[in-house]
Amino acid sequence: MEPMTTDRPYQDRRSAGRVLARFLALAPVGDHPIVLALPRGGVPVADEIATALGAPLDVFLVRKLGLPGQPELAMGALASGDVRVLDENLIEFAGVTPEELAAVIKRETKELERRESLYRRGLPPRNIAGRSVIVVDDGLATGSTMRAAVAALRRTGCRHLTVAVPVGARSTCAELASEVDTLVCPLQPEPFHAVGLWYDNFLPTEDAEVCDCLARHAERPAA
Q: Which of 131, 146, 162, 189 has its CA 20 to 30 A from that of 36?
């Protein structure tokens, strides 16, 4: 399927997931993939994809490192497996001190550990060594969060790695495509500005919805 040419926003994350699932059904994503969602916004998107593909669903924990004073602007990210990705150029340009950077890392590490405990509820993550993986988020802006996820997932020895997002900045998609086996992003508008602009409803995804999605898929055998 060719990328969408419309500049109309998605209704919400679930409608975006249904659109993305149609593109993924025709993409080279490997055999019997596991769908991994980046919490929290990626979970409703991935829920629709896993349901459509009859694939197992799990979460992959990543935390954005927001710039002090501009928390929505990522200066890096953390991921499970002690992976850290930093935008050194942005950190230097913004004049972030080592103390400020350490404080942000400490805070986001604590939140990553909290979510790991909450979402997994004592269960180990799925074994993805030798498997095909589709990692999903609700959009790509700078790509720092997804790059951290990709770096961590490469360490697991997964066989084929696909990044799937409903919308993304064209330059970020082009850069990230060289780091994975397949990248699927139906909507790459120019100018981009921010992920939330391409959704009618971009309210935060709550922890309860994440847990509900994972519980449903834990009870549902894969096709």
A: 189
